[in-house]
Amino acid sequence: MDQAFLYRPSGLYPTPPFESIYTNHLFNTLQPSPAHIFHRKHATSVNALAFSPDGRNLLAGTANGVLTCWDLDLPTPLKPIQTLKSAHNFSITSLAYIPHLPFVTGPSFTSTSFDNTIKHWAFPPSGPGGPTKTISGKPKQPEPLSTLKFPETKVFTHAVNQNPGSPNLGSAICAVEDTAGGVRIANLKTGAKVQTLMGHRGSVYSVAWSPVDPFLVVSGGADGTVRVWDVRRAGGILCMLSGDSEGGTKTGVGVGGRGKVAGALGKAHDGAVNGITFTPSGRYLVTTGKDDKVRVWDLHTGEDTHVNFGPLVRNRGGFSCQNPVIVPKGLTAMEQVYIMADKEVLGFEVHTGRMVKRVSFQERVFSLAARPGEAEIYVGNSIGEIKVLRSSELEPKTEEQEEEEDRQMLLQDGNDLARETLGRIKDEVMGQAITFT
């Protein structure tokens, strides 16, 4: 990075790449931050985290069905600006923040739970005046706009279509516990289940909606398969992603285009697939499985790119969804992916597999989220804490650190003075004529 500073005046590093080099350096120096201390921890594990697009608000869902919202622009220790103590009857499994829907005034968010429901909540904006207040002066609690029930079916996770201008904007796909292997699609406006995509053999544990194609969704299940769907098709299925070891046919689906349906029955993983995330471009897909593997798929070709992420990957999340977190290129020099690995958070370059960060904790990691626009990773753990990974270079210095820096500076000044004095004495001695008697 020092080289970038030297070359910047010459124009060899234009401003945006230079900024990404610096931000990349910040991500590579992530460590648990003592500065972002939350006022209190939750009573049970933090199973889900989600950010607002501007990175100001953080949503957290816990194992006892409690939802909390935090305003990260407030001074520490942070206190929740809103708490829903009975948002769900059982464990919350996933959250999604929705900045705008045409049928909702202001932002909203969705949550899923083991109580067999997906709920859509209004979210009063917390602008300069703070959250909306009731007559008594207390913060107004968000109310569910709709509740969709899936009788006798646990909802593991969900994803919401947020492609602007999409005819099915606001539709949600749900990964559910179902021996029939169906992926449910629901309409948040009407609160009705509108479609079921059949094909998985057993429960579906992970789903994702393409960030660039409003009709393209992907699901991963207990059968180890990753299936690509077009929600407009009667059959739904476009193709299955499979590795070479299974002898499967690889068929590209394209970004904004369509390929033919693949006839392969191969698996993407040798265990259940419980994590799926698109890269921001929509071209690549990152999946995690119970076989302790992370795979990167090129959706233009349908092929596994065979990136090796090494032996440290551990998928110990049961059958809960553990979606990888992507840090996009531009914010960093290369796209990075962060994953949960039991009591660790591991960071890799997406397309090379090179490890860039390894952070260990005393407790198991249950949820992970990257703060938009910032070099920060938020981690929810098994004892109800939210930890923050932040670059050590951005941390405010303690009095002891400032005193140590002052001491080192004074020591350096003393060394410089000593060198200068010795140099002057040497010059004086060497400059005198030597005579022999």
From TrEMBL:
Record-level GO cellular component terms: Cul4A-RING E3 ubiquitin ligase complex; nucleotide-excision repair complex
The entry's keywords: DNA damage, DNA repair, Repeat, WD repeat
UniProt GO BP: proteasome-mediated ubiquitin-dependent protein catabolic process; protein polyubiquitination; transcription-coupled nucleotide-excision repair
Region described as Disordered: 394-413
Cleaved signal peptide residues: none
Database matches in SMART domains: WD40
InterPro entries: Rad28/ERCC8/Ckn1/ATCSA-1, WD40/YVTN_repeat-like_dom_sf, WD40_PAC1, WD40_repeat_CS, WD40_repeat_dom_sf, WD40_rpt
Keyword Ribosomal protein among UniProt keywords: no
Top-level lineage group: Eukaryota
PANTHER family xref list: DNA EXCISION REPAIR PROTEIN ERCC-8 (PTHR46202:SF1)
Listed name of the protein: WD40 repeat-like protein
Organism this protein belongs to: Ascobolus immersus RN42
Organism placement in taxonomy: Eukaryota, Fungi, Dikarya, Ascomycota, Pezizomycotina
